[in-house]
Amino acid sequence: MTQRNNQQIRDLVREDRVHRDLYVNPDVFDLEMDRIWSRAWIFVGHDSQVPNAGDFYATEIGREPVIMVRQTNGDVRVLHNRCAHKGAKLTGRPQGNCKGFRCPYHGWTYKLDGRLAGVPARKGYDNTPFDMKDPRFSLAPVAQADSYRGFVFATLDPNAPPLPEFLDDAAATLDNIADRAPEGEVEVAGPPLRYLHNCNWKMFVENLNDAMHPMVAHASVGNAARRYVAEQPEGTEYPPEAEIIFPFGSSYEFFDKMQVTALPHGHAYMGGELSIHSDYSAVPGYWDAMVKSYGEERTKKILSQNRHNTIFYPSFTAKDAIQAVRVCRPIAVDKTMIESWHFRLKGAPEQMLKRTILYSRLINSNASMVGPDDWDCYTRIQEGLVSDAKVWVDTSRGLGREEAVGDGRRKSFGTSDLSYRNQIQAWLEYMTDEVAA
Ligand code: FES
Ligand SMILES: [Fe+2]
Question: In terms of C-beta density within 10 A (0-12 exposed, 13-18 middle, 19 or more buried), how is residue 216 classed?
Fold first, then answer.
């Protein structure tokens, strides 16, 4: 596949279907790592994870191990997690604090900004090309790193467009998450929850705006919640659990009305002002704290934005109304780690965070009542695509019925496959060297 030319890659995609190789072929996966995950802006972490100088967080951009580290001047840098000597990963720990990095193999040490600080028994390098000041002997910074409202992204491509241009209107989702905090900032609440999926990474990202599956794949939990509530004596208040689970049994018409908006670079979101998260009850004290910070009119405007899932193709997805994000970390063609992250709204009552965590526990975690339904479907797709009976995957729902709404954005009814097709279009652009400038 690595030898496949652009035409052969284009042959895997039709306007109404895609070839199964996108999901099952390990060579396609390798090429994706080179051409998509090395070029797009990938979510690294949130700057609140590294509040103090020397705090670091280690993760991957595609297959590339990286470290996000807070500098003494307050900046956040993203460095390759690879010793300049013989290549050992500098830290195997996911996070911590240090004055500098010391390689566990031969003890080369580095400053927080990646510059080489020391080498044991240095005399052995006398009269060799070794030079402490040569960047060749320092930790390499990633090609570009930037943050938006505290969300740190990085790309391995020096020619990638600037982060705000890449984010496009998906940035409004990050703005809304931060604006929902009376202090205008969020902070990470604990480490992410990790859930290993036996499927190709695209199945997860494509599913997020697939509004044709909840009423089928999640029917049992929706029905059970309804039955439980029906059995309660009249006048019983809905528990917050029911409020969260109910919408997953919403009708096709409800999701159609919610609408899907496709953005450049493969990004998309459902909802806007109407989403399955619109009806959450108010948390006591939250409204007042918001009005104190923003005034009533602006508070109403902030709280009226409800995007169900915003996809920042390929790595990051966010729900603004509940401050929960999920991050996709591909491991192999049929293995993907999904991380669920939770954010505390600074200045808001603690109950807001409890709601976010409750949501994750009920919907996203591996012990939840909803996420495992999706997990099962992805696993079945991965297994079903092995069949030689057919090689194509359908993406035709709503084809040709989308409406251009300016600036490269398109809108359609919520159960359309528009978000799928939009992602595949971005996939093709990255994979064929035709990245839109
Ligand atoms: S590999 Fe890091 S010091 Fe040798
Ligand atoms: Fe689902």
Answer: exposed
